[in-house]
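Quick note —
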Amino acid sequence: MRASSASTPRFSVRLSELALRRTLAPGALLWTAVLAVILATNDWSTDVIALDAGDDSAVAAVSGGLARQGLWSGFCLALMPMVVIRAAAVVGRWRSKGEVDWLGSRAAGRLTIATSTTCGVVLGAWILVLAWWVLVAACAPRVDGSFQLAGSIPAPGAMWVDGAHVRTWSVELPPSARELSLAAPELPSAARLGRARVRIELGLGAGAGPATEVVLRARSHGEVTTARTHIGTRGTIEVALPAGADAVELELSVSDPDARVLVLSDAAQVWIPVASAGAADRAIVLRLCVASCAWIALAFGFGAWISAASAALCVFALWIAAWLADAPCPWIPGIDLPEALAIAAQGRVPPELDPRAYVGAIVALASGLALAASGLARWRRAT
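Predicted structure written out below.
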């Protein structure tokens, strides 16, 4: 006889606690501790930093960025897959341990069982993420002042710049960069590193020497800022923007009339100052927390129909295929995680998480719960 809908619980705290304990089992915690010791004691800096960096603050920023990238990469490659595999193995464990009969006799519906269990596994993943955040904060050198990627503006991609052709174009800045330039006097002192900046990627520099001197100018409201650098096979040039700029005119040229350089990207990056490079950790943690909800729910849902190994491989294959696409879909949670880690390695801060990733996570979470609930119906009917 079925329990009435009024007496059917919509959430089971005990099931969540059980899933949490199994996610953070002693073996998983031991593996986390061993990995933390190995990565925390590794020297992520190299002698190249001292040669390439222009000052001590740049050395500290790059050194902290490399440590941050190494530690978070280790977490993503060694700990998150462990959690996904454990989520995929939940239903298989229920069946192997004979817990199916016990769950089938409870008043809770299969959606309640799926939701409660998923919440427990997700909570365990978040605990690991937050604990790892503490480790990264302790190991990565603290650097006051950094830059965060605020967006992009058009650039003359795949175009040669030489002594006879100076490239000039006008663009409007992203809203965050405009607000920053207008509110610059009110920013905390630690965040006033300077002004917002524009960075362009160049390459294939050819001239009288091994590298070509490139000049990038920005004009707005009668003020002109200039940056110079030498480009060989590949490199970037970055110029500070005039104060109070909402739209700028950019001019790209080479100093040697006989030299030339190729603009490699069709978009220039806009960077805004932030108070600390530690903001990169918050950006990565947010991405991991949102993505873990989608990964765990899908792994749990697939695991209700196929083996745990196959379910985990399905999740990994779907994400890797989307990541390797020519144009990664912003609706997929965690799709920009590799890019965020690469930005953190520069001692800078990844952009704010795209709101579409939240929508994608909700859709993946609902799909995973629906798969799990429908898969559980097979043995619920038999009990």
